[in-house]
Specification:
It comes from Sediminicurvatus halobius. This is TniQ domain-containing protein. Residues 8-146 form the TniQ domain. It is a single chain. With 358 residues, the chain is mostly helical. The chain folds into two domains: 18-161, no CATH class; 189-313, no CATH class. The chain contains 15 helices and four strands. It has helices at residues 18-28, 33-40, 57-67, 71-75, 80-86, 118-122, 189-201, 206-213, 221-231, 234-243, 264-278, 283-291, 306-313, 332-340, 342-357; strands spanning 104-105, 108-109, 138-139, 144-145. The strands form two sheets. The chain has a two-stranded antiparallel sheet. Strands 3-4 form a two-stranded antiparallel ribbon. A hairpin with a 4-residue loop joins strand 3 and strand 4. Helix 7 (189-201) crosses helix 11 (264-278). The chain starts with 17 loop residues before the first helix and ends with a helix. It binds zinc ion (2 copies). Residues 150, 152-153, 155, 170, 172-173, 175 line the site of one zinc ion.
Length: 358
């Protein structure tokens, strides 16, 4: 008989994700996550969905029962509080704003939406919540750019599939994700500051971000996301970086994708560009918008508020595409001639066509 509670009721690590916690619990019992949790919760599909992003109440209730944690404690392992703080009433088809996509297919992960800091993992942090947020590109504590793939084989981390009972192991090659790895080129100080600002908007580490709040124009997180979307156009991005004196974009970064679907190197560049564009407000913003030839049309259908919305309203409106449609069907007069006398119709029509070509 299966006991009502787990034998080893672990405490979550600070800021740990639900998926990471459930994996650690299974490993502590010497089992594989999907086998272990199927034993306790046979009717619940845990690993074919993104349980950190959105989890049914039944899973939360079951987790409370077996772990001994309270409902607020379990809810706090998910990204629900951050989502609520960042974007209110947003409906963007196919994405959860600011939450990186895992691209779950059966139990596999096809997107690189689970970032990690190898140094934090080596210290036993588990996978933490901020690593799933799309504006987070680096670990402030270890001053390094995060990884979003195994440094040995390039697979996205999926610890729930690990045959080795270790959270830091790669499911595909069994190498350690926590192995020392070179850090990518450091984004600018203003990019780090923008990351701190948005983390504070998400309700994470608010006290440390206070110093950065005044450095950027007031606006909601949704407005900042709109700026990332607009700059995500490869031509605008390249022109804007040139106008701001930033290094050019490397090969392969000229892709048009949603923020939540981009890999970490691309997002780091995007955040660096937006951070530079917003510093020295509003002068750099005006020059950047003008030199990258932005118009209001770039922001059509994007949410804007505060002083950013007022600045965008000053941009040229942009050309409206006007389409003149000519009927492809012959006019009614032609149809009448066709009915009356087919031979004459063909001849006259051919002549009319030839005339229109010359
Ligand atoms: Zn770290
Ligand atoms: Zn690997």
């Amino acid at each position: 008989m299966i006991p009502a509670r787990w034998a080893f009721r672990l405490r979550p690590r600070p800021e740990e994700l639900l998926s990471s916690y459930l994996c650690r619990v299974a490993f502590a019992h010497g089992s594989q996550p999907y086998r272990f949790h199927r034993l306790y919760w046979p009717r619940m599909e845990l690993w074919t969905r993104d349980i950190d992003r959105g989890v049914p109440l039944a899973v939360l209730a079951a987790a409370c029962k077996t772990s001994g944690l309270s409902l607020p404690e379990v809810t706090d392992l998910t990204l629900a509080p951050e989502q609520a703080a960042l974007v209110k009433n947003a409906s963007i088809p196919g994405v959860t704003p600011f939450v990186l996509s895992l691209g779950i297919y059966h139990r596999a992960r096809q997107h690189h939406g689970q970032q990690f800091c190898p140094d934090c993992l080596a210290e036993g942090s588990g996978f933490i919540k901020r690593w799933r947020l799309a504006f987070v590109f680096g670990c402030e504590r270890h001053r390094r750019v995060l990884l979003d793939a195994c440094p040995h084989c390039g697979a996205p981390p999926a610890p729930h599939r690990n045959l080795i009972p270790r959270l830091e192991a790669c499911e595909r090659c069994h190498g350690l994700l926590s192995a020392p790895a070179e850090t990518a080129a450091q984004p600018s100080a203003s990019a780090w500051a923008l990351q701190r600002l948005l983390l504070s908007a998400a309700g994470v580490r608010a006290s440390e971000a206070r110093q950065d709040v005044d450095a950027y124009p007031q606006g909601s997180a949704a407005t900042y996301r709109s700026l990332f979307s607009a700059v995500g156009d490869p031509r605008i991005h390249a022109r804007l970086r040139a106008s701001l004196g930033l290094p050019g974009l490397p090969e392969g970064s000229l892709e048009r994708r949603r923020l939540e679907h981009r890999r970490v190197e691309q997002r780091a560049l995007l955040i660096e560009t937006v951070a530079a564009w917003l510093s020295n407000w509003p002068e750099a913003f005006r020059v950047g918008a003008q030199e990258s030839r932005m118009t209001q049309r770039v922001f059509a259908r994007l949410h804007l508020d505060g002083v950013v919305a007022a600045e965008i309203a000053r941009l040229p409106s942009g050309q409206q595409r006007t389409r003149v449609t000519r009927s492809a069907r012959p006019a009614a007069a032609w149809q009448r001639r066709k009915r009356e006398k087919l031979e004459a119709y063909r001849e006259r029509r051919a002549r009319a066509l030839l005339k229109s070509l010359t």
